[in-house]
Amino acid sequence: MPDRLRFVSASHRLPVWMLVAIAALPIGAEAMACSLVTTTDGLAGDSTASTPGTNSEAGAEVETKDAGNDDARAAAIPDDAGSCRTLREVGVSASGVYTLQGDAGAYQAYCDMDSFGGGWTLVTAPMIASDQGVQDYAPSSPSKVDVGHVTGDHGGIGFTVDMVTGYCSDPPKPAPGHAFTVAGPDGWKQIMATYTFRGSAGCWILFGDSYGTDTNVRPFELGTDLFDRDKNMAHDATGAVVPYAGLTNQCADVENFWDPAYKSLTRSIRVVQRRRAEDKPAGLAAAGDCGNMGWDLTDIYVR
């Protein structure tokens, strides 16, 4: 895929007049312009507006109502679009349910056309290629990992993970936790998801770190990959809230999403990561040890 599908960081947020100008560009130029996410202070997202994609009650099904207005939907929608990314590239700008073409025929999918430039296809249960909990990692101290499945907004799949671990040392490889991969649609390049953390742990491994289960994604790289300013909470050693600094492997209480001192607080982050090899499924993994920890993984999209 062309480089315009990769999001890069810049030092300034686009002003309103420029956004208006982009909206007036021809479709091809608009798609290219919208592929750039500008940031301030290294964070992705608008500092003054909330972001879509929050959790919902389990049991929700795919909504079939029209998305947005007719003008936003009717931008030359191709009959053979295989992903929401394809729709966004031809100028479709309204989030909602669209008909896509998969290997097994047509199906309905929810498209997020707002977050990080749009073009995101919601991951549902049939798209999951693998789903596993990593349990035993030390003969003297096996971990206990419970993995549950939830249905979120628009029928998207989510995971809820609870762990009890007692091996308080640098974790072996792969560390205990949970991992999943996604097949299809249409050669996706990036994956986006929201993590919400619970409990406490001395060590954690996230976002493609090599000590976790290999899920065919590149380790998170600050300044290249993205995280959402409205879905980010971490703490420094004093307890002050600080932006995520890009760590993927941590065994200390500094910037620890599962720091015991803050286990009563809600801690969350939404991240975008890049797929590595396109010829096999890819996904996300999280792991940790030394504590009672848990996390919810929701609002999973690919693009």
UniProtKB/TrEMBL annotation:
- Family annotation (SUPFAM superfamilies): Fibrinogen C-terminal domain-like
Q: Which segments constitute the Fibrinogen C-terminal domain?
A: 84-125
Tell me which domain of life the UniProt entry assigns to the organism this sequence originates from.
Bacteria
Q: Which GO terms describe its cellular component?
A: extracellular space
What GO molecular-function term can you cite, just one?
oligosaccharide binding
Q: Which UniProt keywords apply?
A: Calcium, Disulfide bond, Lectin, Metal-binding
Record Pfam families: Fibrinogen_C (PF00147)
Q: Which Gene3D superfamilies match?
A: Gamma Fibrinogen, chain A, domain 1
Output compositional bias ranges, type Polar residues. Answer: 46-57
Q: Which NCBIfam families match?
A: GGGWT_bact
Protein name, per record: Fibrinogen C-terminal domain-containing protein
What are the leading ranks of the lineage? Bacteria, Pseudomonadati, Myxococcota, Polyangia, Polyangiales
